Task: inverse folding
């Protein structure tokens, strides 16, 4: 699995850990992350300075990117933590896991400040680029979009199959990949599938979205054989 920060530092992790951080500008390894007692399942960056990881050891950890140093360990979940997303402000994070909870974290204090019980275990949580909304995906392909301001669900839709990756594409669309070679684009207002990217010949394992222009996003995907592809996607304005 692999994820990318805004300054193109990448983090790669395998079973077993530890993960390694790479500087893709200087093309060299920048450090190794040790500290979790289980497999790392997700990582979310805040700019080019910090990131938060979550793992099977039921904890989240805040890291300083340059030093690859743990700043805070945050227990709270009662089972493996499968997804984490840092708010664009860098002050909050959301996490989800096998204990069927969606937790809100105060990253300044390193504490869980709100817990929402869910009916099914969840695998992914993602903020929109502005942080005005967030999406949660469950184990069975169900995706719910929530308003940050009200905390209420604004849209729900179904992805056919198990989800392997999910990312916002601008404010109005979500790209979702599963055990298939395509990436599907869904509108966050209606839940309708509005497009499809024929990314690979093999199933897509992971995905990142880079948004260098106002109306254009780059969707970076990697398949089960390790091939990487960059596709373009126009922003949904509806």
Result:
């Amino acid at each position: 699995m692999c994820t990318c920060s805004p300054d193109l530092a990448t983090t790669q992790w395998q079973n077993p850990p530890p993960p390694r951080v790479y500087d893709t500008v200087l093309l060299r390894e920048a450090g190794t992350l040790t500290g979790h007692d289980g497999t790392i399942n997700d990582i979310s960056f805040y700019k080019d300075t910090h990131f938060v990881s979550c793992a099977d050891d039921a904890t989240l950890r805040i890291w300083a990117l340059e030093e690859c140093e743990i700043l805070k360990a945050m227990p709270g979940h009662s089972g493996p933590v499968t997804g984490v997303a840092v708010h664009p402000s860098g002050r909050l994070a959301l996490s989800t896991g096998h204990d069927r909870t969606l937790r809100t974290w105060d990253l300044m204090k390193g504490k869980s400040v709100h817990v929402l019980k869910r009916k099914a275990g969840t695998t992914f949580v993602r903020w929109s680029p502005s942080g005005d909304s967030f999406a949660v995906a469950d184990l069975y392909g169900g995706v719910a979009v929530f308003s940050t301001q009200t905390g209420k669900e604004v849209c729900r839709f179904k992805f056919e199959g198990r989800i392997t990756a999910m990312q916002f594409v601008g404010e109005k669309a979500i790209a979702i990949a599963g055990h298939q070679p395509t990436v599907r684009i869904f509108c966050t207002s209606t839940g309708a599938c509005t497009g499809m990217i024929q990314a690979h010949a093999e199933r897509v394992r992971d995905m990142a979205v880079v948004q260098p222009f106002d109306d254009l996003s780059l969707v970076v995907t990697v398949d089960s054989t390790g091939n990487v592809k960059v596709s373009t996607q126009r922003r949904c304005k509806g």
Observations:
- The radius of gyration is 17 Å.
